[in-house]
Amino acid sequence: MEDKYILILGAGLMQKPAIEAARELGLKTLVVDANPAAVCVPFTDRFEPIDLKDTEKLTKLAQSFGKNLVGVFTAGTDFSTSVSYIAEKCGLPAHSYQAALNASNKILMRECFKKAGVGSPNFLQLDRSQIASFLQPKTFNTLKFPLVVKPVDNMGARGCRLIRNADEFLPSVEDAVRNSRSGRAILEDYMEGPEFSIDAIVYNNTFTITGFADRHIYYPPYFIEMGHTMPTVIDKQKRMELIATFAKGAKALGLSCGVAKADIKYTANGPMIGEIAGRLSGGYMSGWTYPYSSTVHLTKEAMLVACGLPPEELLQKRYPLPIKDVPFPIYEIPSLRTAAERAWISIPGRIKEIIGGDYMQHSPFVKDVLFRSRSGDKVVFPRNNVEKCGNCIAVSNHYDLAVDAAEYAISQLLLRLESHNPETEAFLAGKRKKDEDAFPPYAFTLRASEIQLLKRHARSFPIIPENKKVSEFLPKELERTANRVKDWNHRTMKQSLFLFDLYIPHHPAIKMQDFWDALIIGGLQGIVYVSDCAKNSENKNKGLLKK
User: Fold this and answer.
1) Whole-model pTM above 0.85?
2) Helix, strand or coil, per DSSP, at residue 278
3) Per-residue pLDDT averaged across 520-532, rounded?
4) Does an H or E element contain 205, and which?
5) What is the per-residue pLDDT for 299?
6) Over the chain, what is the mean pLDDT?
7) Among residues of the chain, what percentage have pLDDT more than 70?
8) Which of these, 250, 241, 298, 291, lies nearest to 269 by C-alpha position?
9) Where are the beta strands (DSSP E) in 132-223?
10) What is the CA radius of gyration of the chain?
């Protein structure tokens, strides 16, 4: 019997569940990626180094397999249009190519939603040549801020930004256009409200929800997803409204055979769609947190649909939802446990070493610790979801345990940075771009009276002696605040001091003023950096307390 192959687009970590699913289904994997060093390349049956945008070359490869190729698949990539193009040319199951275009080009998407009366923000489109015309007073004065600008054809929040005022307009739009493969951007009204990710499988004119998560988005003017939690905690009525809007949006785009993913908000005007994609979620949702939460191998079920086979587990475990006036019968496979995914991030610099990783790996309730950045890597405070440093996933029968476990594990991790780095120095000196007001944020937000207290404290105790525990120098008046405020990585001020004493027991004498500056602005990373710099030369930060 001849081998049957499935063509998988992408060989990154997001394709790991797809390679596993293919193996379980008895299929050989034909995997393509422009990067021959992608992490999943060694686990493929056959790999070809092809750019995923090169649909003609991909189609030629697919056609060379004839009837031995039974499906085309991707997850967590930008290339659902390539999947549909190849499938259409080879007569394989998939969303139509036009539907895939509608679901990947944000302008086409908004036009489809508008025509079908599906809730989504008002929008304008522009390309590189139109930016100057938008700056003309006649047009510019009609804009009402805040607005959101996005590339029409990218993912991972690259180039996406909140435009809060007129001064931020030009740099924001230029960045969005620069991050668009076609050089185009879309301007939208800003939607205020909690955000959710929802996955679904469209099969035989039915719509099955396969994951509904709360998204945790921070750090304006950018949209950085610091994690998601599944299942959602939103009330049932709003949840049904969001699902109904998702189904209507998928129908408006023409999605009819395969998977769909919605980023959607619940606003004062009800559900509003941010986007619907014709692929499974990235961000560890479809391949990690939903299987943990539901016990269903979602990627396997989606792959069966892509191969023209019935998704048997999905059909057996789903149950109908009481939602009327929608274009599909709607079903759901619910989450049975809570899965919490959280990201960790860094201040700018270059990683010298990673401390606490072993603890994370063995922390209670933690399923996965997924490093994106390692020793020697350059890191930045993220402006998109590709620039985060890693992710932790925890699972429990209890919501609070899963959330607390993921956040506590991350709080124990230290990305120790190389000393005397200009980018780290600038960050700890409080330097920010003019068009990025209050970004990146400081690690800890203190009241003016608390900052004055630290100034007085630094004058009274100008030096932390060599190898002395830094936690002993926290003013008693700040104990309550130090136990309450948290940084980007879920650490309190007091915990940051404790971890410094634990991880850096031997340190040089440190200027107290520099120490408090670095803690407030850069958290644990900041005070370790100041200590490391003090080993060789006087730290020259201009930080917060000297202003």
Assistant:
1) yes
2) coil
3) 98
4) none
5) 97
6) 94
7) 97
8) 241
9) 147-151, 161-163, 184-189, 195-203, 206-218
10) 25
The single-letter DSSP state of residue 490 is S
Q: State whether residue 519 is helix, strand or coil.
A: helix
Distances, alpha carbon 324 to alpha carbons 70, 205, 270, in Å: 36, 15, 17
pLDDT at 421: 97
Tokens of 533: 């710099």
Give the per-residue pLDDT at 226.
97
Whether residue 231 is preceded by a cis peptide bond, meaning omega within 30 degrees of 0, is yes
Residue 149 in tokens: 């600008």
Rounded distance between C-alpha atoms, residue 391 and residue 224, angstroms: 13
* Residue whose token pair is 């379980």: 24
d(CA 113, CA 120) in angstroms, rounded, equals 7
Alpha-helix residue ranges (DSSP H) falling in 415-474: 422-428, 448-460
User: Looking at residues 288-295, what average pLDDT do you find?
Assistant: 97
Dist. CA 360–CA 390, nearest whole Å = 12
The residue to which tokens 């029409």 are assigned: 152
The predicted pLDDT at position 157 comes to: 72
Strand runs (DSSP E) across 291-441, as ranges?
A: 319-320, 330-332, 338-344, 349-355, 366-371, 378-379, 390-396, 414-417
Paired residues of 69 in beta bridges: 5
Residue 456 corresponds to which amino acid?
Answer: R
**What is the model's pLDDT at position 92?**
97
Cα separation, 10 vs 77, whole angstroms: 7
Structure tokens at 147: 């607005």
Sole residue written with tokens 């919490």? 340
Residue 234: CB atoms within 10 Å? 15
**What type of residue is 474?**
L
CA–CA dist 339, 345 (Å, integer)? 20
Phi, psi of 228 (to 5 degrees): -145, 155
Q: Which two tokens stand for residue 456?
A: 């007085």
Residue 541 pLDDT greater than 60, yes or no? no
- Residue 536 pLDDT level (bands cut at 50, 70, 90): low
Q: Are 278 and 248 in contact (CB under 8 A)?
A: no
Do the Cβ atoms of 141 and 405 come closer than 8 Å? no
Q: What angle do CA 439, 431, 482 make, to 5 degrees?
A: 65
Contact 33, 12 (CB under 8 A): yes
The H-or-E segment that residue 121 falls in is none
